[in-house]
Design a protein that fits this description.
Belongs to the Maf family. YceF subfamily. Belongs to the Maf family. YhdE subfamily. The protein has 195 residues and is α/β, with parallel strands linked by helices. The protein has helices at residues 12-19, 42-58, 86-96, 133-141, 169-173, 177-187, and strands at residues 5-7, 26-27, 65-75, 78-80, 100-111, 116-128, 162-166. The protein is built from six helices and seven strands; from the N terminus they run E-H-E-H-E-E-H-E-E-H-E-H-H.
Amino acid sequence: MYQKLILASGSPRRRALLSRLGINFQYVTSSISEDFNENNDYTEEVIRLATMKAYDVARIYDEAFIIGADTIVICENKVLGKPITYEKAFEMLKFLSGKTHEVITGVAVINKNKKFIKQFYDKTEVTFKNLSDELIKWYIENDEPYDKAGAYGIQGMGCLLVEKINGSYENVVGLPVSKLFEVFKEIGISPYRGL
């Protein structure tokens, strides 16, 4: 059965992950502000933001299944967002150097017409190498950190900063597609006929 699917995100990384499944989808960027409330439970907060993004897009596309997602990086109980300056990126990467941090992605799949909603999250532990100042500076000068939580992208040159991961790689990129696929099966979306 054909279902219209929309990713409520402008992230090229999330689009690439979803494209790998061989599923037809559109993407529409949500206008929701990513204001993270650090006083709330972290997993509840990423799910809240993911749900807000999905409902924002569903205001226009109420017949479609909308996927919202939000990803955060947490180290030593500190939430690391997207740096907007060289100095902030350097500070974040220096802070992450030699440590293990958590990447949490909240996901919401909704359909307003069908009154359908599924919410979940995934969590991955990422351990960084001990980073020299020279390596951090080189990485920042390649402009990769600026639109990414925690100031790095594991799918790009940021892989050079990582010693190991425990959990889903795709979750670190920004969309835990293995868990999302289980929701797709429930709503009748599949890239192949066996499901």
